Amino acid sequence: MLQQLSAEELPKVEKEIIDFITTCTTHEELKKSMLYSIEAGGKRIRPLIVLATVRAFQKELTSPVYQTAGALEMIHTYSLIHDDLPAMDDDDLRRGKPTNHKVFGEALAILAGDGLLTGAFQLVSETTLSPTENVLLIQLLAKAAGIGGMVAGQAGDMAAEKHQVALNELKAIHRGKTGALLTYAFVAGGILANQTEYVIELLEQLGGHIGLAFQIRDDLLDVVSTTEELGKQVGQDEKSEKSTYPALLGLEGAQKALAEELEQAELVIRQLAEAGDFQPQLFQELLSLFTLKK
After folding, report:
1. Residue 97: beta bridge partners?
2. How far apart, in whole angstroms, are the C-alpha atoms of residue 203 and residue 190?
3. 2-290, which class in CATH?
């Protein structure tokens, strides 16, 4: 089910993004830089979660769903462009291709990221949703992407370099850095599917567990995977002396922590299945994306 949803519906999200950038961007080099990173590929996990959540509640995938999912991917892509810059992680490779600043230069890469970030809010604002839903989705997206979410997490991640932080602090960093946008994907999907406040709260809990699972898995892959498999340089965490789950807990401990987060996510999925008209299979398939199995 998830594979079919991805194959049939993610191209519609991609089209929303490309059409928006092509239509709204007047500067050709800026447009090329933005599209370069958008079209570089990737798993599109965040927009896929939005689509899967709406579909799991057996609701129709409409234009506002694709637009919201597209806006979320635009913000994720902006974060990758900026994360790869010399002042941040200084990476040369992303999704198997040279990073944006290696192709277009640092200045234009920064502006491409800025364009994707601000354009995302414009895209959500142009949906045909009710004003109340529209403002709520924009507000939650700003919170997830900004100083209470991803940006704060990135700042915490940088501050934790070259020394190891306690486990609770590491989790707090990653709830912002990685978990905030993933949680938004579930919550936005619930809002678009017209779910109750109780269900939205469960989706928020689910996003929290998935967010930590995603980061633990990412930390583990940086140790055990290869550049060819990941499409980006491995071993960067150790090189930058970052605080990671394997560094703090060891490989076995990190694997155990990953399993525990996925178990907690499974429990929330069961609660969702008991709460109403919900098909858990899509979410159970989603969980498989966050394991170490290939």
Report:
1. 94
2. 7
3. mainly alpha
- Residue listed under structure tokens 């499974």: 266
Close Cβ partners of 29 (under 8 Å, ≥ 6 residues apart): 104, 108
CB 178 within 8 A of CB 218: yes
pLDDT tens track for 184-203: 999 999 999 999 999 999 99
pTM above 0.85, yes or no: yes
pLDDT band at 275 (very low <50, low <70, confident <90, very high): confident
CA distances from 24 to 31, 38, 75, 134 (A): 9, 15, 16, 20
Residues 125-160 have pLDDT tens digits of: 999 999 999 999 999 999 999 999 999 999 998 888
User: In sequence order, what are the beta bridge partners of 94?
Assistant: 97
94's enclosing H/E stretch is strand 93-94
